[in-house]
C-alpha cells in the first residue's frame, strides 16, 4: 500500500509491505524514488517499508539535512518505524545520505551509496551539460558560496570521509568504473579506500565498463543480504 502525504511542506511517500518486519525496518530513499529499485523491491518483499521525502535541488545542504531529521523523527513517532533506517543515496542523493549519516549516525543501520556524488566540484561544477550548469548555480545558492569560494570549499563529503568512517556504519557501495558524469575515482572510491584501510564493514561492487547508468545491480541478492545481515547482528 502506497501512502502520499505532505510533511513540513514536502511531498512524501510511504510504501507499506504486505507483511511488515517485526521491528518495522525501512528503506529511506534520499533521491530518485522508484528508480533502479531492484534492491528496494526485494527488501519490500522481505517486510521493509520504503519511504521518500522530496527535498530535491538542495544537494544535501545543511538545511536539507535538518529537514531530513524532522522527517525521520515523524516517521518513527507517527508510524512506529524502526529508529534506524537503511539509507539509500543514488547519484546526487549521495550528498544527502552521506551528510545525514555523519550528522545522525544513530538513525542509520546501513548506508547504501550508488554512483554517489561526494564532491560538488566533481559534480555539478565539472558537469558538461546545460542542466549541470543550472544545477551548479542551485548548489552554490544552497550552500551559500560564490564561484570563488567554491574552490576552497570544505563542505563536501570528500572532506569528511574520516568522520563517516568514525561512525563505523556498514557501507554498501555500488558504482561503474567508467562513470564519466560522477567519476568513481573522485567520489566513491575515496570513501571505499578509507573503509578498507580501517577494516570497517563494507561491501563494494564495481561494475566493469558501466557508466553512471544503470544504477544498482540486476540481481540484488548481494546487496539485500548485506543490508539484511546488518539488521540481525
Automatic annotation (TrEMBL):
This is Alpha/beta hydrolase. GO terms for biological process: proteolysis. It comes from the Bacteria. Keywords: Hydrolase. Signal peptide: none annotated. Residues 65-213 form the Peptidase S9 prolyl oligopeptidase catalytic domain. GO terms for molecular function: serine-type peptidase activity. It holds the Pfam family Peptidase_S9. InterPro entries: AB_hydrolase_fold, Peptidase_S9_cat.
Amino acid at each position: 500500500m502506497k501512502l502520499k502525504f505532505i510533511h513540513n511542506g514536502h511531498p512524501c511517500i510511504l510504501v507499506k509491505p504486505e507483511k511488515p518486519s517485526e521491528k518495522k525496518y525501512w528503506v529511506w530513499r534520499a533521491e530518485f524514488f522508484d528508480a533502479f529499485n531492484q534492491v528496494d523491491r526485494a527488501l519490500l518483499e522481505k517486510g521493509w517499508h520504503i519511504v521518500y521525502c522530496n527535498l530535491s535541488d538542495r544537494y544535501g545542504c545543511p538545511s536539507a539535512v535538518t529537514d531530513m531529521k524532522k522527517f525521520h523523527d515523524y516517521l518513527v513517532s507517527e508510524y512506529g518505524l524502526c529508529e534506524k533506517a537503511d539509507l539509500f543515496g543514488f547519484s546526487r542523493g549521495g550528498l544527502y545520505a552521506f551528510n545525514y549519516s555523519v550528522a545522525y549516525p544513530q538513525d542509520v543501520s546501513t548506508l547504501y551509496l550508488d554512483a554517489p556524488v561526494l564532491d560538488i566540484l566533481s559534480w555539478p561544477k565539472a558537469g558538461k551539460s546545460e542542466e549541470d550548469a543550472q544545477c551548479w548555480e542551485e548548489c552554490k545558492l544552497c550552500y551559500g558560496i560564490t564561484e570563488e569560494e567554491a574552490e576552497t570549499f570544505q563542505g563536501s563529503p570528500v572532506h569528511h570521509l574520516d568522520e563517516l568512517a568514525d561512525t563505523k556504519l556498514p557501507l554498501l557501495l555500488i558504482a561503474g568504473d567508467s562513470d564519466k558524469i560522477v567519476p568513481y575515482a573522485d567520489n566513491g572510491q575515496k570513501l571505499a579506500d578509507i573503509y578498507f584501510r580501517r577494516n570497517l564493514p563494507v561491501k563494494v561492487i564495481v561494475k566493469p565498463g558501466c557508466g553512471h547508468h544503470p544504477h544498482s545491480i540486476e540481481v540484488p541478492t548481494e546487496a539485500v543480504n548485506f543490508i539484511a545481515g546488518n539488521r540481525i547482528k
